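Work Package 4 report. The design task specified in the project plan requires that, given a folded chain encoded as structure tokens, an amino acid be chosen for each position. We show below one input record used in the internal validation round.
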């Protein structure tokens, strides 16, 4: 098992001698405050009605206490995005799909070990281990991990130092993320206005449910009149140009380095062509932030979990994708589906009313949108690059301090504002959010 190299002035012990696995099930339903793993932190799940299904699920959850450490060891062979380590801020329950560990001694500062395991996670040292097709680690494997044991006073000082430094970096990241949100809001507002023809003088009352009015000469019709669903399975691995939906764009991925997916896995993917519109209509209950539409610009394959549309005569594929993007921004798809996570398909949206301008007007609208897109997207890209640099700096500082490479014993910690991870929607549709239940 890969391990971080730490200073030899510290003692070391196996994880199993320092921590015990918490397997305390909530069988009697003594707790109902469910927690979830998100952005490297543990937070409350939204309150929900205690139906029979919810009660049965909560009874299978693990009861966790403040300062327990949670490790997400699921899907280690193809999810290289999720942050996998967090500390429990208050008592509650969480899915037993995760590993929960509890310190055996008061001489251990759980937050020091949370930082240490986060440093391991940042270097993807947990990946490639475990068992099963999806590579899932258990506590049985983790308990043999060698961990450093600095004196308790030094553990506490390291935690104080990292809380300070991480908060300062999180503050800067938050500033840049706010700038990105402001630019995205400006872009969304403009796109919605232009695509819905709000600049036109002659308007009429609209039937569609995300705009009150549309230009008088535009047609309103069900989506199925202007698009149909395309389903072409990648049987026999005919196509190997792997695509993904990320930040509202269809992008290429290297099929040979796709986070451990086996080549046979792509046999069940679907083949898509230039001009197809992709919609991610899954997980509508839990994820109301991601951009869910994208336009295919080259032949390739994409997960069959997505809905693939082909435009009919009378509407440009680029315009249809743009209008569905506006519908997505207006949250039209949410609440339409069924099941715990609310997933829908083409059959659920084919009667949805869309507005269709004449072809020449569609072209004009596309030109206006693209003219604004280029400078804003360029600026957003620059801000994202700054954020990535700050994230890397944070990882480096944590790693260097928890391994003793940087000695912080004599550092004075100033007064500062504590800031946790700044939440940001995970737009990469191929990434796992970590909220996956293991079958009991």
């Amino acid at each position: 098992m890969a391990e971080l190299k730490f200073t030899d002035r510290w003692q070391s012990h196996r994880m199993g001698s320092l921590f015990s696995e918490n397997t305390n099930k909530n069988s009697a339903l003594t707790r109902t405050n469910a927690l979830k793993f998100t952005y490297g932190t543990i937070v409350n799940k939204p309150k929900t009605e205690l139906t029979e299904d919810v009660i049965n699920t909560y009874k299978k959850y693990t009861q966790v206490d403040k300062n327990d450490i949670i490790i997400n060891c699921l899907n280690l062979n193809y999810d290289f995005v999720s942050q996998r380590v967090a500390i429990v801020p208050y008592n509650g329950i969480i899915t037993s799909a995760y590993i929960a560990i509890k310190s055996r001694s008061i001489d251990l500062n759980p937050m020091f070990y949370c930082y240490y395991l986060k440093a391991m996670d940042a270097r993807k040292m947990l990946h490639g281990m475990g068992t099963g097709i999806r590579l899932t680690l258990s506590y049985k494997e983790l308990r043999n991990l060698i961990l450093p044991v600095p004196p308790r006073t030094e553990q506490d000082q390291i935690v104080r130092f990292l809380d300070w430094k991480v908060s300062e970096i999180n503050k800067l990241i938050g500033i840049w993320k706010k700038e990105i949100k402001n630019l995205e809001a400006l872009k969304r507002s403009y796109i919605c206005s232009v695509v819905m023809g709000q600049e036109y003088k002659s308007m009429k009352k609209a039937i569609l449910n995300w705009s009150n009015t549309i230009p008088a000469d535009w047609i309103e019709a069900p989506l199925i009149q202007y698009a149909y669903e395309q389903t072409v399975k990648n049987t026999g691995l005919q196509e190997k140009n792997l695509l993904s939906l990320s930040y509202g764009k269809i992008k290429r991925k290297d099929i040979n380095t796709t986070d451990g997916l086996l080549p046979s896995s792509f046999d069940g993917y679907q083949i898509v062509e230039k001009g197809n519109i992709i919609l991610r209509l899954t997980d509508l209950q839990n994820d109301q932030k991601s951009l869910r539409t994208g336009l295919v610009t080259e032949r390739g394959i994409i997960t069959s979990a997505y809905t693939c549309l082909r435009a009919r005569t009378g509407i440009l594929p680029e315009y249809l994708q743009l209008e569905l993007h506006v519908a997505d921004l207006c949250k039209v798809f949410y609440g339409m589906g069924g099941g715990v996570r609310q997933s829908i398909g083409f059959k659920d949206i084919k009667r949805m009313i869309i507005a269709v301008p004449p072809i020449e007007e569609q072209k004009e609208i596309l030109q206006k949108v693209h003219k604004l897109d280029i400078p804003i997207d360029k600026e957003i890209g620059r801000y994202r690059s700054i954020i990535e640099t700050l994230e890397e700096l944070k990882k480096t500082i944590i790693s260097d301090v928890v391994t003793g490479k940087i000695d912080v014993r004599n550092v004075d910690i100033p007064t500062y504002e504590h800031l946790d991870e700044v939440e940001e929607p995970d737009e990469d549709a191929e990434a796992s959010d970590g909220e996956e239940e293991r079958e009991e």
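Residues 293 and 324 are 7 Å apart (CA to CA). Validation will be extended to a larger panel in the next phase.
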